[in-house]
Amino acid sequence: MAKRNNEHISISDALKEFVETNKLEKGLNKVNVADAWAELMGNGVNNYTKAINLERDTLYVQLNSSVLREELGYGRQKIIDMLNEALGKEIIKKLILR
To answer: How many domains does the chain have?
Structure first.
């Protein structure tokens, strides 16, 4: 059982410490990336999105529409930059559209 500190710390600091000690950051990043994709891309793209998977620093997005896949491929770097900005840190370095 973890020992208690008598110091007063903020909830955000306590949560950060909890995430770090339990190594939950990778899982949280996966959830945050999926949420950021849904928010930034809007309903038009989300209707054609089948699956979103983050592995290491690569984001894999599976789409139903080959036309949409081609269109999004032209703005690949812009999408990566937008997602990283929304997440507040550089998590994604490569985007693969399937």
So the answer is: 1
* Contacts with 45 (C-beta within 8 Å, 6 or more apart), sequence order: 68, 72
CATH number for the domain harbouring residue 47 = 3.30.300
CA end-to-end span of the chain, whole Å? Answer: 45
Global confidence as pTM: 0.79
For 28-85, what is each residue's pLDDT tens digit? 888 889 999 999 998 999 999 999 999 989 999 999 999 999 999 999 999 999 999 9
Sign of CA dihedral 61, 36, 84, 82: positive
| Among 25, 53, 39, residue whose Cα is nearest residue 85 | 39
35: containing domain: 25-97
Cα distance between residue 80 and residue 77, in whole Å: 5
- Please tell me whether residue 24 adopts helix, strand or coil conformation: coil
